[in-house]
Every structure is written in C-alpha cells, then in structure tokens.
What does this fold into?
Amino acid sequence: MEKGISALWKEEDWWAVWLGFIIIGGALLKWIPSIPKVGKWSSNPVDAFMIIKDGIVSGNIFLSLVLLMLALAVLTAIGVAFMRNENAGKYIMGFIGVFILATIAYWIANQINVKYWGLSYALWALLVGLLISNTIGTPSWLKAGAKTELFIKIGLVLLGAEILFKKILSLGAPGLMVAWIVTPVVIIFMFNFGVRVLKMSNKSLIIIIACATSVCGVSAAIAAAAACCAKKEDLTLAVGMTLIFTVLMMFFMPLVIGAIGMNSILGAAWMGGTIDSTGAVVAAGSMLGPDAEKVAAVVKMIQNVLIGLVAFFIAIYWVTKVERDPDCEPNALEIWYRFPKFVIGFVAASLIFSFIVVPAMNGDFNLVESTYIKPITKVLRGWFFCLAFTAIGLESNFKDLAGRMEGGKPMILYVVGQSFNLILTLFVAWLAFMVFFPNAI
Amino acid sequence: MKKKYGNKKSHRTKDWLRFFTGLIMLAVFFGFFASGYSPPGVLGKVLRHNQANDIDASPLLYMEVEHMSELEEGVRLMREKAQRRTADTVRSLL
It folds into this structure.
C-alpha cells in the first residue's frame, strides 16, 4: 500500500477516480460524443450492430466500436503503466481480446427473447469468460488485459453520476420507509446470521450476498465487493445466485400477489423492495397493472440510490473492524490509507451530479439524464462492468468457486436473508402504504 | 522427451474438446432462451406478458430502464392526484 503522495499515481483506486473523472469531465464539457452500444436484435444477429431508425438502417457501429475499444485501451493503459510499470503494449493486446469477448456477451444478452427472461449481460460475460478459463485456460496475453478491479472501480465512479439523491423523494415518506428502513436492517441481519449462526469464515462473501439481496442485486454486489476488497470468486458466486433468484422471483411474486388478492400498490411496493434487479421489478410490477408498475419501479429506484451510502459504510466498517489489527486501535491516518479511495470518487460523482449539475440545469433531471448520463456515462459504465465480468470469468475456475460454497452455506444465507427481506418488506410496505400513508398514492 | 511432448499434446486436444463441448452447451443454453419458448401455464405467464408488451426485464439499474422517466412522471401524477383527493375530502368534511 502506497502511503505517500505517490499513492495518487501508484494506487489503482486513485487511477479509477482520475479515469472516471476524465470521462465525466469529458461528458460535461461535451468533448465525448455519444458512446456506441450493442443494440437489441430479434432474428438477424447483425441488427445488433446496425443503427436503425424507424425501421430503416442508416449505418452501423463497427467503426465506432473499434474507436471506443482503442480509446478505452489507451486510457486505461496509461493507468496500468503508471501503477504497475507493466508493458502497455501487452496490456492493450490483452484488453482488445477482453473487449471482443465483452462485445460477444453484450450481443448475446441483447437478443430480444433473452431480455424478456431478464438475463443480463453480467451472466453472459461471466459464462463466456468461464468457458475459456475452465477449458483451454486463459492465455497469458489475454490475462494481461483482464484488469478486473480497475474496470469495476472505474465503472463504479461512473455509476456515481447515475445516483441522483433527489430521486429518493419521488415517492415521499412511504417510498423511503420501504426502501431505506428495510434495506439496512436486512444487511445487518444477514451479516450477523452469516457470521454468528452459519459461522461462515468468508465475511466478504457474506456482505456481498447481503447487499445483493437487500439493495439491488448485481450492481450492489459489485459495489460491496469493491468496497471490502473481496475475491473475484466471491463476486461470481453472489452474482450467480442473485441472477437465478431474480428470475424466479420475477416469475412467482406477481402470481402469488394475484392469487391472494393483495392490493396492487402494496404488492408493487413489496416487489420493488425485494426483487433484486430493476428490470425484473418493472416486468413483475407490470403484471399487476400500469400503476403498480410505476410504484414498483420507483421503489426500486429509491433503493438504487442507497448503493453509494452502502459502499461507503462497508468500506469504513471493513477498515475499522473487519481488517483492523486486533492489537492496536487504528488512527485516522491509518483508516485513510486503507480506505478504498474509489468510493470517494463514486460518492463525489453522485454529489456533483445531484447538487451541482442538476441545479445548474434548472433542476431538469430529464435533461441531465438525456444529455450526459444516458448517452455517455451510463453506456461507458455498462462497458466497464461488462469488461469486468468477462475478466472475472477469465480469471475464475470452477474448483475455486466450489471451494467457496462451504457446504452450501452461501445458498442458505441467501434463502434465509431473502425470506427475512420478504417478510420485513411486506410488513413495512403494509405499514407505509396501508396504515400510515394510505392516501399517499 | 518425446513422450512428455505427446502427453502435452493430448492434454491440449482434451482441453480443446472440453472447450468445444462447453461452447455447444453455451449455444444450446442461449438457443433455449432466444427461441421465444415460454413455460406452459402460470409458470410462463410473466414471460408471455413480457413478450406481448415488449418489456425488457434485464436492466440492472433504474437508469437502464428505457421508459423510466415516464414511470417517474406517472408516480408524480399519481401523488398529485392523491393529494388533490385528500384536500377535497378534507374540504368536504369541513
């Protein structure tokens, strides 16, 4: 760990902040044009790479994808070369390989029927990487470009721009009750259950599963994993579980709510607070009607905003409690040295967008989203996460993953935690929408 | 030495065989989901609803939902309507 001023150009966390803010700065100054993304396709796979407007093909994104790949390769290579004195040329070659695999993962995930199932790019990127690493083995030239932590951290700094604090008031007090009271309680319950009852030795895995279950699935898992410096295999395991259970909950929750005749707004709030990913929440909410779809999506959105705070507190807790030297009390300087600095970038990006950029644009959220976030930071964040999951797959093997199962304890933790989450969220949603604020909606 | 080289070669062949087997499994896995199949009965209800209404269930975060701003606007209007309703009720009681 670098302790002097040189940490600013030697530590990966700081480089994630610099690179993230170069991108955010470029977006705000309008130096970055819109970023290409792999599109949806139905029966013709090439449609994913075509620019289609009103059913007419007006061009393709192949050249802009190549330019994006080279730009990201060069940008991140600067950081890699400074941090580790690694050969930038070797890194760029490896990065190109990882980028091509990530593009394949995006292409698979964007098939329209796959999207209806709720299977996101994270799953396909992991599978593509795991296929290579567990069969022919990841070649060393490709490994050189698989900088998982750097990709995750840059992605998280960019994610900060999407976390707009004013959104938490979108549903008023009942929304806050469901999203912000239940979530921390479930995290604390699951962490204690994992440590004290299941006696799991891997605390990082416990907190990742707890955050994925209670906040918002994959994105929260990534943030928690980075905040507590978890192993890649822990993240893979948690993400795998959350993706499977998200699909199951999306399928079954609307059926149960419909079968027992629950009030649709209460059911929507319940699903918004419990189903892990936003897309699945929207799909499940839509089953209960248009109003329920809106309420479910907004409850989930309010919960999404918690990611930054959760990552911040996990980082603090890990530095001061979990990984502290038992023989001495850590002083403020020691905490600062060990604190994951990218979290500062993540929170700073969120604060800048929430309290400077949005007010500077007359409080017009839609304008901020359509000008800076949706065409630039969101797309690039997606690319960095997709690159990260591909890299994780390339560096993981099934033996290590099996070794982390601890006799099925992570699965028990997920099931017990999610059950607790379901009960508590239903109770608080009932209190919020039926008892305390029955006329809020 | 020759024997050692031979072993290495057969290992590589096995690795590539495993790779192609895995690739076929991945393709079958993808093909299943991409085929548009939905489980019969209530199990496939949500999926059929997604297909009929073109609902993308894959976004991880709210910003990835294409019509999120419409959903937010919808909630804002619902809240305004509820506030008006409450005010009317209070007025009628007074």
